[in-house]
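Page 37, continued from 36.
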């Protein structure tokens, strides 16, 4: 299911002109890398599901070792992608001409809000647009906190999944990395 979601997202990034036009326009390199990475992660996750299913018909030990290595590669790639994305977007924000356009767009939002309130004739259209702009400005920082919190939870769950079980918290049972990765899939 999660592999399919990643593959569908990759398809939308690649072919849906209405979905990520701004991303394609403003940050071309980041857009291309994101599209490729989401596609590769979806395919990799599908392969991990196949390996987990194969464990029932083959040597479970070999399949679990292969699965664990695959999960480790996926986790490392997520960290590498995230680090690259942060570094490249910081550099983009400092130096890209498109970043200046983005900053102008943000300034435009501040200028357009009073104009929306002044247009009484179109209040039925202007008020909802104004409310959406206000909501975006108010709620956008929350996404950072959610990403940080779930990253921390994911790291903790992965560490517990890879531990030998002796230091596991009460109520935790060490089955296999497969089970914990399934839990991570459900969270993310």
């Amino acid at each position: 299911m999660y592999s399919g979601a990643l593959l569908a997202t990759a398809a939308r990034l690649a072919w849906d002109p209405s979905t990520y036009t701004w991303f394609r326009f403003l940050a071309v390199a980041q857009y291309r890398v994101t599209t490729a990475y989401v596609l590769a992660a979806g395919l990799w996750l599908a392969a991990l599901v196949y390996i987990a299913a194969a464990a029932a018909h083959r040597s479970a030990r070999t399949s679990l070792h292969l699965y664990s290595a695959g999960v480790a590669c996926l986790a490392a790639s997520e960290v590498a992608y995230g680090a690259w994305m942060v570094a490249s977007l910081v550099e983009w924000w400092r130096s890209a001409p498109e970043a200046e356009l983005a900053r102008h767009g943000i300034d435009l939002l501040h200028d357009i809000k009073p104009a929306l309130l002044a247009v009484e004739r179109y209040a039925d259209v202007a008020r909802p647009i104004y409310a959406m702009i206000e909501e975006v400005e108010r709620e956008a920082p929350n996404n950072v906190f959610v990403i940080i919190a779930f990253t921390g939870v994911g790291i903790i769950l992965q560490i517990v999944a890879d531990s030998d079980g002796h230091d596991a918290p009460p109520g935790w049972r060490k089955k296999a990395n497969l089970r914990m990765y399934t839990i991570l899939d459900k969270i993310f």
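Residues 1-95 form one domain. Flag for discussion at group meeting. The chain has seven helices and no strands.
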